[in-house]
């Protein structure tokens, strides 16, 4: 990771992404808390998260739009637009203004898809192929660290200073990202404008995902795991309440443990991709979730801590493996559509899984559901591991050895001059007439 951070252009992008990710992490939970504070309703607060997720259905259109423009200007414009679209939140006063929060949340969800799609292409243009795992690993490490502290910090800031100041801080983060990337010089190659008159351009990303063998297996395997991974969002509350017999606030401690595992996973992800390839890293991440879920079916605190460390470790491996695979196997002109489509194909099953888990935990034993999650994710990981040869490990780049400079040839010593002898005969030559 230190190698990629030595690149001045990537360091600028890293600072920009850090600013926008920080704004994102403090804002997500705070919007739901704000709605809860205004209405007193848990259901209306949960609907805020749904409003953010709902724009995923527009992912093909968003990806098509991203592919029509150069990456750097689009990244700058998207961050500026995100800062502007947050400004209506300053008008929120009471329960009657909750609809403003929902509209902003939906628009923010749309901008999140845009930023994610354009960032993938921008990384591809800035970083050579052999450093893509390091670049994605660095960003996943930051994301996991912010996920560890960001939502809680956002909720605490909302409680301390109110929603308006929190919105101002979030806007500052997006404006900072735009300002930092603005001066960046990027060779914008391979980003042709999609023809808006061709409807097939919208589905080009999905066609590429279906036609490329490694990407197809990656999304099928990860999608299968995602169908049950979301169960844990509800099961963890039953685990703490019924299994450990602790207060629901203890969930926060376990989430912190999972975040620590995520940090470790982010640091290791580039090495894993190089050892087993992108599909292999994705397989390792999904498979690790299996034993973690099985361990949570047996409620013991020490075992739960180990399980959540393992679950946290798995997430960066899956994300870095998937993102690196997409960047390496997708033409630059399609990268926006492919990234947006893959996000939708992963987020859709996860959203369904979260809702299904919330229903099932009320009628089935949570331990049985954890076993189900463990078995399905282990099977999905096995399916991915079986296809790991579709993306073989990247051999380490041998160090470049420059030829040694040759020494300049040493000048021959001057010939010895015979001393002239007085009275000696003249040298041979033409006889004077």
TrEMBL record:
Protein's organism: Micromonospora auratinigra
Topology of this chain in the membrane: Multi-pass membrane protein
GO cellular component: plasma membrane
Domain Major facilitator superfamily (MFS) profile: 1-185
Domain of life: Bacteria
Spans annotated as Disordered: 387-433
Protein name stated in the entry: Major Facilitator Superfamily protein
Subcellular location field: Cell membrane
Pfam families registered for this protein in UniProt: MFS_1
Coiled coil: none
Keywords of this entry: Cell membrane, Membrane, Transmembrane, Transmembrane helix
Pro residues compositional bias, start-end: 392-402, 424-433
InterPro entries per the UniProt record, alphabetical: MFS, MFS_dom, MFS_trans_sf
GO molecular function, one term: transmembrane transporter activity
Transmembrane segments: 12-35, 47-66, 98-123, 156-181, 219-240, 247-273, 279-298, 305-326, 366-385
Position of the signal peptide: none
Annotated Low complexity bias: 408-423
